[in-house]
Amino acid sequence: MTPRNPSRETIADELIAVMGGLGWCPMPWQRELLEVAYEVDAFGQLWYREIVVVIMRQSGKSTLIIPVSLHRMIAWEDRQFGIYIAQTRDKALEKLVEEHFYHIERSPFRRLLVPNRSGKIRPNLSHGSENLKYINGSKWAIDAPTEEAGHGGTLGLAVGDEIFAMSDNRLEAGLTPTMATVDDAMTWWISTPGKSKLKSPFLWQKVEKGRARVELTRMDPSILDKSRTLYVEFSIPTDVDMYDPLTWWDHMPAVGYTQKLQTIQGFADSMDEPEFRRAFGCQWGDELGGDWKIPKEKWDARIDTESQIGDTLVWVLDVTPDRAWASISAASLREDGKVHIEVVDEGPGTDWLIDGDDRASDDELRLHGIAYLQREYGGTVWYDHLTVGSFAPDLRDAGVEANPIEARDVMVAAPMLLDWVLNDRVVHLGQSELSDALSSAATSTFGDGWRWARGRSMRPITALVSVSLALRMLAKTLPDLNYDPLAALREGRETP
Predict the structure, then answer these.
(1) How far apart are the first and last CA of the chain?
(2) What domain of life (predicted)?
(3) Which pTM value belongs to this model?
(4) What stretches of 197-260 show up as alpha helix (H) in DSSP?
(5) Which of 211, 233, 258, 302 has the highest Cβ tally under 10 A?
(6) pLDDT tens, 40-67?
(7) Beta pairing partners, 442
């Protein structure tokens, strides 16, 4: 979680007072979050503009969202406009009526709502403009999760609930202009994880950036004086026992408050494992390996951290279409007949791809470049003409004899890697570059075959593409490996 900045004051006590008026006492996780989220600068303006919360189901999201929205509607001098967005407009309307209005109407805050023409306190349910109106002119409305959300007004608060259902950033793009002129506007994104990163790209992007920002803040606390995004995540690590009640005590913030162990046990007994892990462990299916094209358990079984590149090897260069990322991978034959695959160099940009970067030669982080690697270790160099062909003249100028890979070899490279992993014919070092690429790699089909799909993947997959191509070209270079491309296509098609 983004830590508290002790140099800033907080108005969290106002939110806690609103919760008290609704009849709720904040749980420790809610109190800690509010203390950070409602830090203010020297001018009394809210510091954080974006709050991202990833948390288990039934952990107190509603008892947080309702006070946050109510506080915004009643605590500002000027009237405020806010919007609540769920997976669908119907879901948002259900929440507005059954939870938001229900709790406010039964609290002392009901007198702040505008009555209808008959004098009754009711939400405005006019189709397309459902909302709660306050006597100070503020309005808390709902909308559908589209790029049109919030248009036509200036928003001080937007809440996106269960955003794992969002397939892209159109909603955020639509909301941003409506909040640009509000100095202390806030956007809350609250959700459990999606079934996979590919199916929930918007949320995963928030998670990835949030995790990275929290780690950077631990190393450099001065980031707290710059970043306007708060990130908090409650999740159970994938390497602990998900079904141990002690794990629930350690990682579920609502256990002992609004959740009981016997309730969690009931869910554990009745739900299938992937869904239980997602809903109550905040674990992504990709990280569990359930959605990997190459089964994670098979991939992990091929790890050999002592394996090394041999004398008979090939190199493959690969870059992303936008030239933002590049990889150099190798495949070599071991004495036991298995093939060693490895990502040797990987980094941003392409300026280092041939001659390396300008770091000292003894720097472990140095990107060496293919000219040095071939000079030092020998081997043949290959590249896919569609992605790396533009570098051919530069490779020649650097004295690197590089060969284009034929289209038919590109077509069978991905299913070949799958085939050889399944049949225990390759080993790798367990590099995070490869496991990360595998966990987020999408595929596309052509005829009866399939390939890695760059454009649909969640992150650069040059590491995965380059080792796949390296394996293919080594097998083609060494006929004794007896690889049948058509068999790879058949195996890939038959693998679930």
Answers:
(1) 37
(2) Bacteria
(3) 0.69
(4) 201-219, 245-251
(5) 302
(6) 999 999 999 999 999 999 999 999 999 9
(7) 453
